[in-house]
Write a structure and sequence with these properties.
about 240 residues, single chain, 7 strands, Rossmann fold, 10 helices, alpha/beta
């Protein structure tokens, strides 16, 4: 069975409060993933539905199934959204024979100790249709901070590590790049050097409004960075 039920138990509600302000950040993720999203889509680790809202704005998604193991998060999700199918559990709790055209996993895999087993479960759901995995994880172990531990992160990923784990799990990597070059230095300074253990919603809001749009425009349209705060992968399940 998937270990993704560990996610919600180790993530504080304050994270959702801070990320609620990161509207441009969520829109950027949708822009990165959109070419690979269509048809039947499964969102793993939906939380309270913040990114689910963004996914629903993509007209190519015919139906969204959101999977979330935490009962309280599910309650808040239902208050926020009524469109997606919500499965309270893990991918192991999806109905037998479930198949998908795409799976979205944003800041989930790092919470799962047996991450390759989780990736293989995604591949099983996607392989019948040759579907795509849209994956987003924290990057660079050298900036693993006390806050990472508080969140229940087992690791931050390098590009080579993630590519190899995807290959062993039955995926062909289509695209794999670092994301948010400036955020790497901000995370290192605030959470590694200064040792802060909470997000500031006002700081997140300022960064998201004033700095991040410029950073992402350059990364998306001009050049991908050599390293960054996160890694973004598009991988196709092999038949």
């Amino acid at each position: 069975m998937s270990d993704s039920n560990q996610v919600a138990e180790r993530t504080g509600n304050f994270e959702f409060e801070a990320l609620r302000a990161a509207r441009n950040y969520r829109k950027a993720l949708l822009a990165e993933f959109s070419p690979s999203l269509s048809g039947e889509v499964i969102e793993v680790g939906a939380g309270i539905g913040q990114f689910s809202q963004v996914l629903l704005s993509n007209p190519k998604i015919r139906h969204l199934t959101s999977v979330e193991p935490d009962a309280e998060f599910c309650r808040q999700f239902r208050q926020l959204l009524s469109g997606p199918t919500l499965v309270e559990g893990t991918v192991a709790d999806l109905p037998p024979g479930t198949a998908a055209d795409a799976i979205v996993s944003v800041n989930v895999l790092e919470h799962i100790e047996q991450d390759e087993r989780e990736l293989k479960a995604y591949a099983d759901l996607l392989k019948a249709r040759g579907g795509s995995l849209c994956l987003f994880v924290p990057a660079r172990q050298e900036i693993y901070a006390p806050l990472d531990k508080d969140f229940g992160h087992f690791r931050r990923y390098s590009r080579n590590e993630l590519r190899e784990k995807l290959a062993r799990s039955g995926f062909e990597t289509v695209r794999l790049n670092y994301f948010n070059f400036v955020g790497y230095f901000a995370w290192w300074l605030i959470f590694c050097v200064m040792g802060r253990r909470t997000f500031s919603p006002s700081s997140v809001r300022r960064f998201d409004k004033l700095i991040f749009p410029i950073v992402h425009f350059m990364e998306f349209n001009i050049v991908r960075p050599p390293f960054g705060q996160s890694l973004l992968a598009i991988a196709r399940a092999q038949h």
